[in-house]
TrEMBL record:
Stored SUPFAM superfamilies: lambda repressor-like DNA-binding domains, Periplasmic binding protein-like I
A GO term, aspect molecular function: transcription cis-regulatory region binding
Domain (HTH lacI-type) ranges: 32-86
Protein's recorded name: LacI family transcriptional regulator
PROSITE patterns: HTH_LACI_2
Keyword DNA-binding: yes
Record bears the keyword Transcription regulation: yes
Pfam family, one: Peripla_BP_3
SMART domains on file: HTH_LACI
InterPro entries registered for this protein in UniProt: HTH_LacI, LacI/GalR-like_sensor, Lambda_DNA-bd_dom_sf, Peripla_BP_I
The entry's keywords: DNA-binding, Transcription, Transcription regulation
Length: 378
């Protein structure tokens, strides 16, 4: 009967000198229905439905009585039934290029915290593609985009790591938000990568460095390299602002932004007949980790012999004492989720203000011990 106490059975089985306790499922009982809750609360099932969905037209005392009855009976509304009744599944799909990147995990965590607090269930959709950013210009992605949005199982989609949404974004049939760069057809959150590069240049030149190098993190064959281009442009602009010629900056392109790529750049610098730069700006912290390790194995130490700065504020950056640009990955997810709630006509528990269609998040230069004034010998 509804509300009766469940009894779990733990049969004891003795084998030799060992006793094993085997947990089994409780005996099946009839599922509690909305009619049971209505009967318990002394109202009709329509009133129960409105109360549980948070709709108007139910008095505070009646609502409290219904909620108490539902809790006592351990009533769980059918998700399918609620979806049919409200047109909402309370589910948001967060689309990630990969689960292996700390950055996308941080973004997803920020978005998930906001959406969960707003009563949404989160569905992580891992594309598992070998790219930092979604290739939105491909036919494959356009097809995927339509497929993800065309079903009735999600109220909205949040794309992590895309710089734009296809022109026919409306064909997704569900609200869409994204983070990563300025968007033409959906609200989004992006980071001022240009300013981050400029801050690094101002810091390094302020320390007296003029023999500069930059390790570009763009991936080979990647059509959209706008984020890397923004970081480069900001850095070169900062160099020019200091009075130095930006054309003298050595630009190194390993073909990706991982630690192994930074390690290879370190080997190349050590093997080059040219003098080492006095300071290097890496487009990612992982590039900086690999570069520092490779140079150290070659007898070149940071920051005594060379200064190195990164971009990201990777969770390991503080352990490497790495000077870097914090792009606030968690906050990116938070703000993107808040924008999505605004599209759904809901106010976020974390903010009352309506977010702009496109929001630029500021970055912050975190100065640690991997950068120092230019060595006097140089």
């Amino acid at each position: 009967m509804p509300g009766e106490e469940a009894h779990f059975y733990t049969p004891r089985v003795s084998i030799g000198a060992t006793t094993w306790y085997v947990a089994t499922s409780p005996p099946k009982k009839r599922r509690v229905t909305i009619n049971d809750v209505a009967r318990k609360a002394g109202v009709n099932k329509g009133t129960v439905s409105r109360a549980l969905r948070g709709m108007d037209g139910v008095g505070a005392e009646t609502r409290a009585r219904i909620l108490a009855a539902a809790e006592e009976l351990e009533y769980s509304a059918s998700e399918l039934g609620m979806a049919l009744a409200t047109g909402s599944t309370r589910t948001v799909g967060i689309v990630l290029p990969s689960l292996r990147s700390w950055y996308f995990s941080e973004v997803a965590s920020g978005a998930s915290d906001v959406l969960s607090n707003a009563g949404f269930r989160i569905e992580l959709i891992n594309l598992d593609i070998d790219s930092d950013f979604l290739q939105i210009d491909s036919e494959q992605f356009a097809r995927l985009f339509r497929q993800l949005g065309a079903g009735r199982s999600r109220d909205a989609l949040l794309f992590a790591g895309t710089t734009s949404i296809p022109e026919d974004g409306g064909r997704a049939l569900v609200p869409v938000a994204a983070h990563g760069g300025p968007l033409a057809t959906a609200p989004g959150v992006f980071v001022d990568h240009w300013e981050g590069g400029r801050l690094v240049a101002a810091h390094l030149t302020g320390l007296g460095h003029s023999a500069l190098a930059m390790v570009d993190g763009r991936m080979l064959g990647k059509v959209d390299a706008s984020i890397w281009e923004q970081r480069s442009a900001g850095f070169l602009a900062g160099v020019a602002d200091s009075g130095l010629d930006p054309d003298t900056v050595r630009q190194l392109r390993p073909g990706d932004c991982r630690s192994a790529d930074g390690e290879q750049i370190g080997k190349d610098l050590l093997a080059s007949p040219d003098s080492l730069p006095s300071a290097v700006f890496c487009h990612s912290d992982e590039l900086a980790f690999g570069l520092i390790a490779s140079l150290r194995r070659g007898g070149v130490h940071c920051p005594q012999d060379i200064s190195v700065a990164g971009f990201d504020d990777h969770p390991m950056a503080h352990l490497w004492d790495l000077t870097t640009v914090d792009q606030h990955a968690y906050a990116q997810g938070v703000r993107a989720a808040q924008a999505l709630l605004g599209m759904l006509g809901l106010s976020s528990p974390d903010t009352e203000a309506q977010l702009p269609a496109t929001e630029r998040l500021s970055v912050e230069l975190i100065i640690r011990d991997s950068t120092s004034p230019v060595p006097r010998s140089l």
